Amino acid sequence: MTPPPSQRPHLQSLPSQKIGSAVQGVAALLWLPQAALLAWAVDGLASGRGMAAVGWPALGILLLGLLRSACEAWGARRVFAQARAHLTSLRAHAATALAAGSPSDRTRAPSGLAASVMAEQAEAVVPYLVRYQPARWRVMVVPLAIAAVVASLSWVAALVLLVAAPLIPVFMAIIGMRALAASKAQMVEMGSMNAFLLDRLRGLATLRALGAVDATAERLDASAQSLRQRTMAVLRIAFLSSAVLELFSALGVAMVAAYVGFHLLGTLDFGTWGEQLSLGQGLFILLLAPAFFEPLRDLAAVWHDRAAGEAALNGLKQLGHHGLALPGGHVVSGETVHANGAPSLSVRDLHFSHPGESPLFEGFELRIAAGEHVALLGASGSGKTALLSLMAGLLPMTRGEIEIGGVALSDRTAAALRQRIGWMGQKPHVFAGSAEANVALGRRGIGATEVQAAIRFARLASVAQAHPGAALGEGGSGLSGGEAVRLALARIAVHAGADLLLVDEPTAHLDTETAARVADALLALAHGKTLIVATHDPVLAARIGRVVDLDAATMEQAA
Ligand SMILES: Nc1ncnc2c1ncn2[C@@H]1O[C@H](COP(=O)(O)OP(=O)(O)OP(=O)(O)O)[C@@H](O)[C@H]1O
Q1: What ipTM is given for this predicted complex?
Q2: Residue 456 has pLDDT above 50, yes or no
Q3: Distance CA 51, CA 71 (A)
């Protein structure tokens, strides 16, 4: 499911920074009157008018200088504020797009890569907008204005500037293409290294137990070397582009200076509109020549920002691409659903397959009465988890209909229906934080009293007390397997509005006694609610009223 055009993030659109950039451009143009005043003062001094010729121009230069600084500062502040606001909205779009993907989508961006793109790489967008965009604006305005003023005094000097200038963009464009490719490659490398590192850190216990730490370190080293090489490639290109520009601008300024010098000496007495240039006019042209190249030099200095910024924008855009959408993931305000006692559930003509895999369900049917308890049985891989995810609106069905309490599960109702679902996945994620925070999960309307009651219900009190105020380790380290399952039970127990419980293998890997206790707690919790449990545990299945065998159901579909 792709988001409708109106909700698609406008990643490439840039904020209207025109005013800020224009004011910075005006600041650059103020050098024209400043240079004119300076040349006028020197001309006055040379023609013997003494210090009287310097007073007014000096005051003018000072005032213009102050105005120029004020324009620069105001423009830069404005552009910066807009760039930060734009980055914030880009990040929000990327986060929304990420959240609109199904959590069971295997093709989602790896967590480390997503974190690297959103937190670190996205920062490259700010220099791009703050420095590159205004520099580009100045390049389009300032050199033309200066060339026009110089041309009004000497067409030869203007011609020299105009011949030197186009060579710069041509070379920059050639280098720019390489820079963009190098920057993209560097960002991809950085993202995959972050993803690799995060993944291996999570699995460190397994790597250590199986003696695979050295091999992983070698791979990480190879990755770091490759990132270093890519970073150096980007830097090389950045240096090359500056060198090309410095060369051409130095040549341009030198040629103008040589022409003006020889013209004033009378050796080259052509290139003006009739009269010889005065000392003041010659000096004015000389002062303007470096300023003609300055915006181009600024652009070259920030050329790398463009490559990095565009690569970052691209990376943010890529985060939104997913193979499986979360039903209702991009619907801003869906419908509300009124619960009226435990819901019935009906699945009609369900079709589903994971992308690129053979179909798991083709015309699957199931009816569950309100308040009924059902065990889903089936061989490993028969699709029990997929069916629960489809019912919870965590996976999009290809075809068919799922109705919960008479409300059809759709993009508009998925979020509201999920509100009445208590979900306990096969591998509940334990966040680094206290047991209490892990139970409440920051959900609205869940206070400390409810959390304590849920903790007592799930017999987690000893765990919570054993670590008063202390954090559980990342990924559940510090909890036994049974405790992690009880924590997951507490999470649904605390959610009083959940009257459809979808539970995936709650007793897997537990000893008989712990499994029996977990089953007791689950059945107590499910009293008066609709319960669907996927399980391989015959003891648990026997305690639940009805058993649905997915293998048999799939055989029926096939028949
Ligand atoms: N995120 C996914 N992307 C693609 N294929 C998947 C994904 N998750 C599971 N599968 C595949 O879909 C099939 C059904 O998996 P599912 O987890 O639903 O089975 P299950 O009956 O719950 O298995 P188990 O009893 O082992 O938990 C399997 O072949 C599995 O490899």
Answers
A1: 0.95
A2: yes
A3: 30
